[in-house]
Amino acid sequence: METQNREIKEMSQEQGDSSASVNFIQMIINQDLAEGKNQGRVHTRFPPEPNGYLHIGHAKSICLNFGLAAQYQGLCNLRFDDTNPSKEEVEYVESIQNDVHWLGFDWAERLYYASDYFERLYLFAEQLIMKGKAYVCDLSAQEIREFRGTLTEPGQNSPYRDRTVEENLRLFREMRAGAYDDGARVLRGKIDMASPNLNMRDPVLYRIQRATHHRTGDDWCIYPMYDFAHPLSDAIEGITHSIWTLEFENHRPLYDWVLESCDINPGPQQIEFARLNLTYTVMSKRKLRQLVEDGSVKGWDDPRMPTISGLRRRGYTPEAIRDFCERIGVAKSNSTVDISLLEHCIREDLNQRAPRAMCVLRPLKVVLVNYPEDQVEMLPGEINPEDPNMGMRDLPFSRELYIEQEDFMENPPKKFFRLSPGSEVRLKHAYIIKCVDVIKDSVTGEVTELHCTYDLETKSGMPSSGRKVKGTLHWVSAAHAVPVEVRLYENLFLKENPDEDQEEDFKVNLNPNSLEVLDKALIEPFWGRAALGSKFQFLRQGYFCVDPDSASGRLVFNRVVSLKDTWSKLMKSK
RNA sequence: UGGGGCGUAGCCAAGCGGUAAGGCACUGGUCUUUGGAUCCAGCAUUUCGUAGGUUCGAAUCCUGCCGCCCCAGCCA
Question: ipTM of this model?
Answer without folding.
Answer: 0.97
